[in-house]
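User: Design a sequence. Structure:
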């Protein structure tokens, strides 16, 4: 998978700039403050469609010309958006088909954003025309650094246009109705289709009850999720093609949203020149939550760096309660993104909007336009540090020997399934195993089922509900080479159509795991079963699979109920090279997951030197010239007193650190060590 990153002399720093919302005298203040803060990159034009095209046959580039020309005159670069994420009112009025129909079957009127039907010919025609006009005008502009198509793609439409497009997609995929009927198991409940026109989108009026996750036919809903991903991707590709007609060289991206369930970003990845995303983690989430999303974004392009396209400098404005980032948290979050592969650090937003729903969203510059606020000072100091860092981390990759499989199809299939438990959340299971590996000091690549696994010693496959293609064979290959594969409860259950495998659970993974599962017990969240492992007792919840070893040996056993004494965790020796396959049959608490994962990592010498330091994160990157970088991030409010495990230079301070010497990180402190 190829990538094309923008060429810059340092980490691009800045963010969303909306000067069209302000008189031009404010622009002068903006650029003065940008210079103070070290801002060199601006994302512009994201929501400017109604300004740039006030009528179907009228384009007005006056304001956008001044914005780009001013940026160039100030020595700043621009990530230019195509403005197609929010319809102008005239378009919705003239072509009502562009307004979405929601899950309950209601055709919406004009309003909000992300408000277009992806199957609308009028939207596709006018959006691509606008993208083409922008590319024709600005392809050779000196400020242009990258193209930013649309913005945070999302949302689903259930209109007649989408229904027909869905049928067309199904016809292309299945060719015959017999094949579709078999894939969807339509002999159930008399659903066998005899004409393509009989197929309806699965929504509240057809197959669903109690919301989008309760469906009578999982295969149908699963295919509609895939259709929505592809429909929105089609809009992106149409705009990209329009840009490429005038600009064959400038890199093109769109900003993703990390672990965003509605869209399978792996389907998008081959079509991006570089990945970018907007990071807004809950501020009470552990630091491994945004780290997981960073690594997922890096994994979209086979480990190539990504752009942090948005983060808040202080607060968000889209939740019921919006806590403020504490002093030092912004710096630490930004350096964490760089540690995990970010080659740009941008904000939303540069100046706070005066009105509408984001007027209280955090901004580099507040409503008063001051340069002496705490937030502005922190942004400016971070800009100074990134300038000192220069280009040393640009293009650097992560030398991970541990992979974690992340699969949107498994996510969808697991959470729309009526059983074994609707309390199991895919993200939470995946995060628990990712967190265990990261806390143990292992670098982790987060990869799709289709990834090449030959370079990894350890492959973690939590909640791998759906097994597709030759994945089981490739996982066996990891163990055959002496590596370790770990799978968990609810793995290996269904095929690509969400049909249960007609074999022992865990389906195609059973020979590798050396087990058979005939029964499983799902209980309420407050039901806790003890699991005995190596002299320790851990809590288990939600799902308790009853494992029958078929070659595997027990590592941990249940301590209660009629399955007391049966295996809860197993290990199976596989192949002639000492490979192993581990299976965790229940939702262990975090200490239990940590215990299992550390046993696996220890076998491959992947435990980091600071693994016992709670709240200390480590990450590695290797630059194209071979420079090795070790990031140390202290996520605690107390100083971290360490011993240097290698001789290095801290790029943030310029100080040399000798192996064995004391190394102290302040509260929420960080070091970037160039190692010898």
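Assistant: Done.
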């Amino acid at each position: 998978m190829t990538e094309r990153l923008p060429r810059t002399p340092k980490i691009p720093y800045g963010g969303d700039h909306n000067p069209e919302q302000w008189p031009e005298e404010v622009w002068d203040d903006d650029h003065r403050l940008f210079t103070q803060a070290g801002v060199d990159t601006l994302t512009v034009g994201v929501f400017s469609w109604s300004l740039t095209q006030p009528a179907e046959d009228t384009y007005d580039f006056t304001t956008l010309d001044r914005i780009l020309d001013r940026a160039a005159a100030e020595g700043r670069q621009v990530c230019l958006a195509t403005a197609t994420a929010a319809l102008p009112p005239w378009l919705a009025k003239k072509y009502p088909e562009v307004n979405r129909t929601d899950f309950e079957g209601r055709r919406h009127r004009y309003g909000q954003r992300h408000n277009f039907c992806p199957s609308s010919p009028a939207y596709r025609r006018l959006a691509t025309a606008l993208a083409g006009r922008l590319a024709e005008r600005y392809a050779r502009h000196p400020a242009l650094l990258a193209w930013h198509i649309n913005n945070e793609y999302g949302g689903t439409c259930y209109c007649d246009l989408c229904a027909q497009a869905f049928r067309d997609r199904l016809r292309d995929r299945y060719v015959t109705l017999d094949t579709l009927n078999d894939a969807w198991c339509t002999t159930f409940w008399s659903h066998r289709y005899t004409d393509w026109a009989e197929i309806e989108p699965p929504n509240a009026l057809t197959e669903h009850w109690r919301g989008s996750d309760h469906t009578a036919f999982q295969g149908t809903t699963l295919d509609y999720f895939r259709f929505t991903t592809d429909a929105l991707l089609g809009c992106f590709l149409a705009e990209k093609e329009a840009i490429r007609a005038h600009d064959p060289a400038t890199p093109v991206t769109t900003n993703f949203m990390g672990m965003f369930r509605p869209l399978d970003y792996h389907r998008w990845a081959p079509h991006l020149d570089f990945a970018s995303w907007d990071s807004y983690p809950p501020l009470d989430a552990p630091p491994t939550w945004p780290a997981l999303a960073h690594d997922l974004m890096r994994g979209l392009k086979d480990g190539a760096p990504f752009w942090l396209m948005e983060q808040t400098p202080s607060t968000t404005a889209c939740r019921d309660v919006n806590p403020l980032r504490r002093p030092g948290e912004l710096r630490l979050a930004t350096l964490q993104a760089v540690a995990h592969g970010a080659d740009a650090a941008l904000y939303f937003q540069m100046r706070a909007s005066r009105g509408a729903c984001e007027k209280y969203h955090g901004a580099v510059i507040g409503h008063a336009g001051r340069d002496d606020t705490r937030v502005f000072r922190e942004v400016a100091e971070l800009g100074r540090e990134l300038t000192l860092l220069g280009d040393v981390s640009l293009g650097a990759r992560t030398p991970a020997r541990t992979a974690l499989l992340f699969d949107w199809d498994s996510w969808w299939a697991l959470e729309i399934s009526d059983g074994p438990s609707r309390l199991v959340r895919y993200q939470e299971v995946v995060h628990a195993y990712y967190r265990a590996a990261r806390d143990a000091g292992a670098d982790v690549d987060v990869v799709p089922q289709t990834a090449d696994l030959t370079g990894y010693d350890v492959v973690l496959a939590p909640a791998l509900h759906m097994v597709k293609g030759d994945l089981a064979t490739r996982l066996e290959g990891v163990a055959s080479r002496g590596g370790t594969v770990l799978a968990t409860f609810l793995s290996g259950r269904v095929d690509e159509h969400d049909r249960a495998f007609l074999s022992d659970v865990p389906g195609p993974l059973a020979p590798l795991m050396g087990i058979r599962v005939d029964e499983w017990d799902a209980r309420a969240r407050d039901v806790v079963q003890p699991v005995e492992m190596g002299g320790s007792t851990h809590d288990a919840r939600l799902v308790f699979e009853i494992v029958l070893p078929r070659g595997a040996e027990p590592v941990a056993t249940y301590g209660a109920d009629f399955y007391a004494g049966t295996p809860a965790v197993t290990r199976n020796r596989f192949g002639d090279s000492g490979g192993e396959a581990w299976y965790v049959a229940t939702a262990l608490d975090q200490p239990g997951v940590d215990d299992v994962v550390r046993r696996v990592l220890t076998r491959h010498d992947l435990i980091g030197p600071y693994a016992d330091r709670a709240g200390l994160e480590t990450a590695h990157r290797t630059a194209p010239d071979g420079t090795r970088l070790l990031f140390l991030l202290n996520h605690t409010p107390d100083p971290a007193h360490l011993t240097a495990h290698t001789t290095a230079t801290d790029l943030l301070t310029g100080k040399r650190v000798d192996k064995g010497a004391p190394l102290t990180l302040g509260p929420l402190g960080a070091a970037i060590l160039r190692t010898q």
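The first strand starts at residue 13 and ends at 16. The chain is about 30% helix and 20% strand.
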